[in-house]
From TrEMBL:
Membrane topology recorded in Swiss-Prot or TrEMBL: Multi-pass membrane protein
UniProt source species: Sulfuriferula plumbiphila
Protein name: Trk system potassium uptake protein
Main location: membrane
One GO CC term, this protein: plasma membrane
Gene name, Swiss-Prot/TrEMBL: trkH
Binding locations of K(+): 111-112, 220-221, 435
GO molecular function annotation: metal ion binding; potassium:chloride symporter activity
């Protein structure tokens, strides 16, 4: 138990600093003179005081954290911060239950984008900004988590390249290298977000909508300020801008950093995930557009291509924006989009799911096993971009995929057992565990997750956390071995 106190000391400091992030929506509330001004005073005071008390109470027991502490630190940070993030929502909307508020903020910080709120157009600007700020802050944390921290814990697809890739991801200590890594990555993240804001403003959004949607696009969070999501704007120019930045966000931010530092696009060609991501999504857009046009959903192929391109890229990259109710399309199309949400995003991006690098590795492992059926004594190493992949990593990826599928099936069955229909249950879990946002049927793009019972809402919140922490990081805490000295 004593080993937990130094971690709680860090959590206390994180909560204390988190209180200052609420100053931004507070300032927006004063600027717009909206009805939520009172919601932030108490929220900031409670969050700051709780963090300060926890930090002071454990200050004498602090020590340098070890790599093993990272599992508990990451899990606690992602579970505790959404709880404090609920305070502005609960103070402004007293009818909202803590369960629903926690789902909303967990969805925001894990960049899932699933919502239980309706009437978004009528919400005070500061509340909408708070939701999107959670998206953006969660995206910041995810980049550092995925690129710098999880590889050190032996989790996350990017550990494949930890030894080979130059740049901000080679160090073996949690500090101080991670601070330098975080600074570099956050500068890239903030710079691309600024470019997205300007591009959306030029495309026709107001400054407020441009900021909110840029936050959601770069974090692949998918929150919108409108119930109709991006369909509210009905603008091909806005959709084109968002498609570009969603694809950028689905690539590894360490690759963006290296491209900017080297002032060269050649880095993207050396990242095996980039051509696979763009190729898979490009072919899918053309094929699914043809499929639904042939089925008579749209009279024109180009109209079908417009709607398919936006919604498919949005779901495949795990963002969650929508510009139409694609739940009404022939069932193959939305199911294929949800399948892509499992595999498309790159490691080190703000997307979720299995990640493209693991898929490439599993395909090569499948090919090797087929060849071994013919040449049983042959030594067949697996290589990606001329880098030899050890069997240890192959086994770890196999274990991850097995746990991912098991979690998907078990959580879906739990929702079905609780009374939800199979399509809604299965797609809700696949959307939550991939941090993609909308599912189908009762939780489709034209509805919200408000239809779920309290128990079902907690199951989906757990699925979001499980997916965001790459499964291993959370499940290892439930093993007796982790708690032994």
């Amino acid at each position: 138990m004593l080993r937990v106190f130094p971690i709680l000391n860090v959590i206390g400091l994180v909560v204390l600093l988190f209180a200052f992030t609420m100053l931004t929506p507070l300032a927006v509330s004063f600027y717009y003179q909206d009805a939520a001004r009172h919601a932030y005073d108490a929220a900031i005071l409670i969050t700051f005081t709780a963090g300060l008390i926890l930090w002071l109470a454990t200050h004498s027991m602090r020590r340098e954290l070890k790599t093993r502490d990272g599992f508990l630190l990451v899990a606690l940070a992602w579970a505790v911060l959404p709880a404090f993030a609920t305070l502005p929502l609960l103070f402004y909307m007293p009818h909202l239950s803590f369960t629903d508020a926690y789902f909303e903020t967990m969805s925001g910080m894990t960049t899932t984008g699933a919502t239980i709120l309706s009437g978004l157009d009528q919400l005070p600007p500061s509340i909408n900004l708070w939701r999107h700020l959670l998206n953006w802050l969660g995206g910041m944390g995810i980049i550092v988590l995925a690129v710098a921290i999880l590889p050190l814990l032996g989790v996350g697809g990017r550990q494949l390249y930890k030894a080979e890739t130059p740049g901000p991801m080679k160090d073996a200590r949690l500090t101080p290298r991670i601070a330098q890594t975080a600074k570099s990555l956050w500068l890239v993240y903030a710079g691309i977000t600024l470019a997205c804001i300007i591009a959306l403003r030029i495309a026709g959004m107001s400054w407020f909508d441009a900021v909110c949607h840029a936050f959601a696009a770069m974090s692949l969070g998918g929150f919108s300020t409108h119930d109709a999501s991006v369909g509210y704007f009905d603008s091909p120019a806005i959709e084109a801008v968002l498609i570009f930045f969603m694809l950028v966000a689905a690539m590894n931010f360490a690759t963006h950093f290296l491209a900017l530092r080297g002032r060269s696009l050649r880095v993207y060609l050396h990242d095996p995930e980039v051509p696979a991501l763009l190729g898979l999504i490009g072919v899918s857009c053309i094929g699914v557009a043809f499929y639904i046009w042939h089925a008579g959903t749209y009279a024109s192929y180009w109209t079908a291509l417009r709607y398919v391109s936006f919604n498919l890229v949005s779901i495949a990259t795990d963002c969650g924006f929508a510009n139409t109710d694609y739940g009404k399309w022939p069932i193959f199309a939305p199911l294929w989009m949800l399948l892509l949400s499992c595999v498309s995003a790159s490691s080190g991006s703000t997307g979720g799911g299995i990640k493209m690098i693991r898929v490439l590795l599993m395909l090569k492992q499948g090919k090797r096993e087929l060849e071994k059926q013919i040449h049983s004594a042959a030594l067949l190493p697996i290589k990606i971009r001329q880098s030899m992949i050890s069997n240890q990593i192959v086994f770890a990826v196999q274990a991850f995929v097995m746990l991912y599928v098991t979690s998907l099936v078990l959580l879906s069955l739990i929702l079905v057992a609780s009374g939800l229909d199979f399509i809604s249950a299965f797609t809700a879990i696949i959307a939550c565990i991939n941090n993609a946002g909308p599912g189908l049927n009762q939780v489709g793009p034209a509805t919200t997750y408000a239809v779920l019972t309290g128990f079902q809402t907690w199951v989906c919140s757990f699925a979001m956390l499980l997916g965001r922490l790459e499964i291993f990081t959370l499940l290892v805490l439930f093993t007796p071995a982790y708690w032994r000295k």
